[in-house]
Amino acid sequence: AQKITQTQPGMFVQEKEAVTLDCTYDTSDPSYGLFWYKQPSSGEMIFLIYQGSYDQQNATEGRYSLNFQKARKSANLVISASQLGDSAMYFCAMRLYNQGGKLIFGQGTELSVKP
Amino acid sequence: GAVVSQHPSRVICKSGTSVKIECRSLDFQATTMFWYRQFPKQSLMLMATSNEGSKATYEQGVEKDKFLINHASLTLSTLTVTSAHPEDSSFYICSANNGEWDNEQFFGPGTRLTVL
Q1: What distance separates the 2 farthest-apart alpha carbons in chain A?
Q2: Whole-angstrom distance, CA of residue A15 vs CA of residue A79
Q3: What is the pLDDT along chain A (115 residues), one digit of tens a residue?
Q4: Each residue of B17-69: pLDDT tens digit?
Q5: CA–CA gap between residue B7 and residue B108 (Å, rounded)
Q6: Residue of B3, B39, B104, B106 to mutate, testing the A interface (most A Cβ within 10 Å of its Cβ)
Q7: Which residue in the set B102, B106, B112 is minimally distant from A52, CB to CB?
Q8: Measured between CA atoms, how close is B76 to chain A, in angstroms?
Q9: If we measure between CA atoms, which residue out of B90, B92, B97, B95 comes closest to residue B110?
Q10: Helix and strand tally (H, E) in chain B?
């Protein structure tokens, strides 16, 4: 069965430091996509980064990078130089291409950035 | 990026009434739309996948007769919560795909439903 797991309900990080949010996944399909979304208190879902299962290199988008370890089935998000505005819920998600492309989400990690 | 809108953003209704939530893709055609429900401090739970011109595919445990989904055009999908009860109070979010699956899925801003 396909599953996404985020084991850190809450994380704290000092402003300007880097933080890693963990995500592991389980699927038997060879083709899948992994996403990270940020959800501030307003509720909107903000796309951060995408990694395809066949991508050879780790994805990067500005201060966000995805540490993709396929053999370990992990897709951790690294945020460098944390800012106060990074405080939010972060969700890891997996796209299931053989199930109509639906996106399933992990439990989420609440990140708090301290000044 | 592509824009998805939802209407209304917030609705309060009495128990037993029906509520319709609209999800629109504003600048692209969405052959597939998804509906999620999110309770406070919890994750997004997929309710159903909506394909234009066909019946929605519901996730296990989601009542089809209670959560009616219609995807009548390539830019509009609606979710109707029928005979709403207080336990249906939640944050409902739609998302849409523009056919490029190796890309972000675009989310609406969400609808907060409160059933009294």
Answers
A1: 44
A2: 11
A3: 789 999 999 999 999 999 999 999 999 888 899 999 999 999 999 999 999 999 989 999 999 999 999 999 999 999 999 999 999 999 999 998 887 788 999 999 999 999 9
A4: 999 999 999 988 888 899 999 999 899 999 999 988 888 999 999 999 999 99
A5: 9
A6: B104
A7: B102
A8: 18
A9: B92
A10: 0, 11
Q: For B38, name the nearest residue in chain A, comparing CA atoms only.
A: A43
Residues A47 and A27: their CA atoms lie apart, in Å, by 22
Query: Which residues contact residue B84 at a Cβ distance below 8 angstroms, ignoring those fewer than 6 apart?
Result: B13, B15, B16, B17, B18, B19, B113, B115
Helix H or strand E segment including B97: strand B90-97
Distance, in Å, from the CA atom of A31 to the CA atom of A112, rounded to the nearest integer, reads 33
Task: Work out the minimum CA distance from A45 to partner chain B, whole angstroms.
Answer: 6
